[in-house]
């Protein structure tokens, strides 16, 4: 028998006998609860039950399990942006996830856009019909979940400027284990190729 190996005999089931022996011997056994440990919904949470979140520009690299849960439910994103009189207005307003899957609200060529990247298999893009103006602008995304996907409506300063359908939504509670939620930029891989 190899050195350091101990045979455990007991009337307990094998896993309980091994745990009992490990406890007496001061050993630490591997935790085999992979699914339970990988699912952030099964861990203690500071955001559980919350329905309203406020994020400020520059909030970055927040783990998906620590931000508003938008999986398989309706949600609204409202962002107040200040567009300079000179220079560009393009950039990310908010991004959740990354190249493997996620969503982003951004301005491109002066117009607000929303893209839902369903695990690189489908990309749902909703573009504005109107540009942002210099000064304060309020951009809003209203996602109405219907059990499979949802209707996305874009608003600019209270006026409807775009609408489109997302046929598939994030089923697992998060898009990625290593991507994050960011405001004002996308800190890791981009959700959108645009």
Structural summary, described in words:
By secondary structure, the chain is mainly beta. The protein folds into 2 domains: 10-43, no CATH class; 46-183, Jelly Rolls (Sandwich), CATH 2.60.120.200. Helices cover 9% and strands 37% of the residues. The chain has helices spanning 14-25, 34-38, and strands at residues 62-63, 75-83, 91-98, 101-108, 111-118, 122-127, 135-145, 150-156, 159-166, 180-183. It has a 6-stranded antiparallel β-sheet with strand order 1-10-3-4-5-6, with no helix packed on it. Strand 7 (135-145) and strand 8 (150-156) form a beta hairpin. The longest helix is centred in the first third of the chain and has 12 residues, at 14-25. The relative contact order is 0.20.
Topology:
Blueprint: H1 14-25, H2 34-38, E1 62-63, E2 75-83, E3 91-98, E4 101-108, E5 111-118, E6 122-127, E7 135-145, E8 150-156, E9 159-166, E10 180-183
Antiparallel strand pairs: 1-10, 2-7, 3-4, 3-10, 4-5, 5-6, 7-8, 8-9
Order of strands in the sheet with most strands: 1-10-3-4-5-6
The low-confidence parts are: 1-12
Helix content: under 10%
The secondary-structure class comes to mainly beta
**Integer-rounded radius of gyration:** 23 Å
Strand content: 35-45%
Number of DSSP helices? Answer: 2
Q: Mean pLDDT across all residues, rounded?
A: 84
- The CATH architecture designation of the largest domain is Sandwich
According to CATH, what is the topology of the largest domain?
Answer: Jelly Rolls
| Elements, N to C (H/E) | HHEEEEEEEEEE
Largest sheet: 6 strands, antiparallel
Overall geometry comes to elongated
């Amino acid at each position: 028998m190899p050195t350091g190996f101990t045979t455990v005999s007991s009337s307990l089931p094998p896993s309980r006998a091994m745990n009992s022996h490990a406890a007496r011997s001061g050993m630490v056994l591997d935790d085999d609860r992979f699914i339970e440990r990988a699912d952030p919904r099964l861990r203690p949470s500071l955001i559980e039950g919350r329905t309203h979140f406020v994020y400020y520009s520059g909030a970055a690299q927040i783990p998906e399990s620590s931000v508003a849960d938008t999986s398989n439910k309706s949600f609204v994103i409202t962002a107040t942006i200040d567009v300079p009189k000179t220079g560009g207005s393009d950039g990310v307003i908010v991004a959740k996830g990354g190249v493997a899957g996620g969503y982003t609200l951004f301005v491109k060529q002066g117009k607000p856009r929303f893209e839902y990247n369903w695990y690189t298999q489908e990309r749902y893009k909703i573009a504005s019909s109107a540009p942002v103006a210099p000064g304060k602008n309020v951009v809003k995304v209203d996602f109405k979940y219907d059990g499979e996907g949802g209707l996305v409506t874009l608003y600019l300063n209270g006026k409807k400027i775009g609408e489109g359908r997302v046929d598939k939504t994030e089923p697992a509670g998060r898009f990625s284990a290593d991507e994050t939620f960011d405001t004002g930029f996308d800190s890791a891989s981009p959700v959108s190729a645009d």
